[in-house]
Amino acid sequence: MRVRSILLTVAVIAAIFSVVSYTSSCKKDACENVICLNLGACDGGKCVCPIGFEGERCEILSRDKFIKTYNGRDTCSSDTTFYLTYPIYFRAQTGDPREMVMKNILNDMADSAYCTMQGTDSFTFQGSNNSLTYFGTGKMRNDSLWLNYSVERDTSAYDCRFFGQGLR
Fold first, then answer.
1. Is there a contact between 75 and 106 (Cβ–Cβ < 8 Å)?
2. pTM, full prediction
């Protein structure tokens, strides 16, 4: 009876050891309870967001922080340098959450460009108005807007930079 009791105790201890070893060696899926929105994908417990979205769960449209008016000025490589402070307006484009419209380029309300988000704080743009064509890149940080772009007018071309501050 005593041998039986010892064997039973050894068997129980071996079973407990096996269960503890098995459960401690199992790795839990870090993404098991992570829900990423807007086609985001979980990697190591964190959401990796597609272009145009940000936030812990990819729930924020990146372009929304751009949708406002910026007052600033251009400097251009042409003989005509623009020192006048003027506003540039951003509006959301319906249909694609990565797109927006920029209006009043070179202080002309007839000039607008279509912008496409390239990251959480950067975009590319292009537009035209009659004989004027422009294209470039933009970025926004801490409520400041920077544009680097090229302008083609008939047979001439020049480069411009715009810097502006967001209005509340």
1. no
2. 0.77
Place of tokens 């990697």: 43
CATH number of 62-166: 2.40.128.420
For residue 23, report the phi and psi dihedrals to the nearest 5 degrees.
Answer: -70, -30
pLDDT digits (tens, 9 = 90+) for 80-93: 555 689 999 999 98
DSSP 8-state class, residue 110 = T
| CA dist., res. 93 & res. 100, Å (int) | 4
* Spacing of C-alpha 25 from chain mean position: 38
Token duo for residue 44: 């190591």
For residues 97-112, give the mean pLDDT: 91
Please give the backbone phi and psi of residue 63, each rounded to the nearest 5 degrees, phi first: -65, -20
pLDDT of 53 above 80:
yes
Residue type present at position 63: R
pLDDT in tens, 61-72: 999 988 999 999
Contact 153, 137 (CB under 8 A): no
Domain boundaries, the chain: 28-58, 62-166
